[in-house]
# Entry
Amino acid sequence: MYTIYVDESGIPSFRDPIKHYVLSGILVHDSKIKELKQNVFLYKHRYFKNDYIESEIHTQNLYNSKKNFIGLVGRDEKYQLLDNLYKMITDLSAVIISVAIDKPLLEQTRPNWKIFKIAWTILISRFNQYLEYDALRKEPAIVKIDKSTSKNRKDLNSLFEEMRSHKHKHQRIDKILGEPIFVNSDAIEGIQVADAVSYCTNRYLEKKSQFTDYWKMITKIMLSKDGKTFGHGLNIFPYDHKMKNRDTQP
# Structure
């Protein structure tokens, strides 16, 4: 059995000024979940201290020195935390897929489409394709998502039911069991890792130099084909034909 941990970065609304809404998933085989927990524990044990010693990994708060990380004001200490966070992620036995919805382009080309729904459709169908691709991966997966998204529970359950009923060629979820399971992120290390990946993806697409370096690090475990991440580990929708060199720069 596999588990897909999912978290988001950004707001799925055309009114929100941030260009992309990002949804990221971390696929981990159940035999490797203990290892993931240990890696996150060791990272926190070594680097978390002061007011944030008991905190969960919430990368936006860490980077912006908010909430539990409000006392984190030194640039060197902040980047030490981030450097080692993304190094820890690259050492995980996991597969990453991120979906980024280009909201201005979607509004221009498909204004009636729902940002949240299309992001989830792409993410889950991509994971399903990955699980079907290799005959060795015969086991199904369950999806776990942060409880803060429970307000979308009805929409997600309807989407999963729709995808199972219609079984479109590129939108099957035969390998995904049940409906999403909503969990507390502070107790689930996989959700915290997905949070770090989503935030990194969004900042990378904004061309923030520090996160470009982190992005290059985590592509080590992103889904790729023939050395290419775009369209596999990173899916940007809608497709913008003006973008070039997608596997090196956004």
